[in-house]
Amino acid sequence: MNVTDSAAKVRLEQLTGLRFFAALLVFGVHFRWDTSGDFVKTIAEQGYVGVSFFFILSGFVLTQSYKTRILAGTMSFRDYFLLRIARLTPLHFLTGLPFLYFSIMQVEAIYSEEFSVIKTVLNLTYLQSWIPVSSIYFSLNAPSWSLSDEMFFYVCFFGLVAFSPRKLVAVTLGLGVVVFVSALLVQVFLGDVIFFGKYPFSHWLFYVFPGFRILEFLVGMVLHEVWRRGVRLPGAVQPLSYLLLFLAMWLAPDVPDPFRYSLFYLPVITLFFYAHLTEGAALTRVFATRPLVLLGNASFAFYLVHQPSLHLMNIFLRPSIPADIVFFPVSLCITAAFSIFLYRIYEMPAERALKSWVKGKRSAQTPNEATS
């Protein structure tokens, strides 16, 4: 059995557990820190680096799951794309509909954005991140902007898998140079200029724009090629990767926004991700435990519900629990419990039903072809 065959059979459950850690970082960004010190607030405000982890993970996992079948011709683009839609759409629609209702009914105490057909259509068709207007790319359930990016990655992936490792590295480095030059030009000539919405143009271009954020997805694909060849880091690198990550989060406020939103975190989060691919290391075993794997499986639901959940708890629960040191774990536990419930009762059954339908249609068209 060659290295590729061996790699395809490996279960990387620690990456599932790590998904919850990444979602927890994003949770910290949207938590309203009232009574904590500057250090905690500074670190927490940089938690959006968790999205970079998700994008790298996406490139790695899709390569692991689909590359062999796509290159062998046993999976068409139609089947592949429908399976990816089945992964995102049930939760995306479910978490977006309440915001649609609140905007139509003008329930400003919960959701202040006015109803717009254009914004709704763009959001529900995963196109909102292409529009450099914050009220559009943060429309309905704001965290869903990243799903627009992911959908773009999915489309590109079907062609990217055919690239040789050398060409894939070249494309990744080339895009990195484009992002660097763009960040330099924006910093020098535009700075914090706001063209539309509430945020500077640099916020959209380097944090939201799918054409630049695919860089992290490409890094995930390259890392899979390195991992497939058997390259591993020493276990001691794992704790070091945490120190470097939190040090970067502490220093990040002094970094100009175009670079902080794009390239600043990329080396650190890449090292952090790859360090956890080392089999047998202590933290690898921790994140592969059943409780963390469950939380990791529910992390997509957690990611999509955490911001509205925090908003509601700030309205109804926060007045009676003012201290951050108490309210943070309480709100985290409530959100996590609801996410697990949503994952088991709705997300998993809906995704399975949609994927079974896709596979059933495929089997009907190609009865002699095995699918998985």
TrEMBL record:
The coiled-coil segments of this chain are none
Q: Could you tell me the keywords of this UniProt record?
A: Acyltransferase, Membrane, Transferase, Transmembrane, Transmembrane helix
* GO biological process terms held by the UniProt record: lipopolysaccharide biosynthetic process
Q: In the Enzyme Commission scheme, what number(s) does this protein have?
A: 2.3.1.-
Could you confirm whether the keyword Transferase appears in this record? yes
What the entry lists under InterPro entries is as follows: Acyl_transf_3_dom (IPR002656), Acyltransferase_3 (IPR050879)
Which GO terms fall under molecular function for this chain's record?
A: acyltransferase activity, transferring groups other than amino-acyl groups
An example Pfam family from this entry, by short name, is Acyl_transf_3
> Membrane-spanning regions, if any?
12-31, 43-62, 82-104, 145-163, 168-189, 201-223, 235-252, 258-275, 287-305, 325-346
Q: Provide one Gene Ontology cellular component.
A: membrane
Per UniProt, residues of the Acyltransferase domain are 14-344
PANTHER family tied to this protein:
ACETYLTRANSFERASE, ACYL_TRANSF_3 DOMAIN-CONTAINING PROTEIN
Name of protein: O-acetyltransferase OatA
Q: Which organism is it from?
A: Roseibium aggregatum
Gene from which this protein is expressed: oatA
